[in-house]
Amino acid sequence: MKALNQWVPTGRRVVEDLSAVDLAVYAAVAATPTPTLDERLRQLSTAANHSKISIALACGLALVPGRPRRAAAVGLASVAVASATANLLGKSLARRKRPDREAGKVPQARFVPMPESASFPSGHTASAFAFAAGVASVLPWAAAPLGLLATSVGYSRVHTGVHYPGDVIAGALLGTVAGSVVAGVDEWWPGR
Question: Which UniProt keywords apply (predicted)?
Answer without folding.
Answer: Cell membrane, Hydrolase, Membrane, Transmembrane, Transmembrane helix
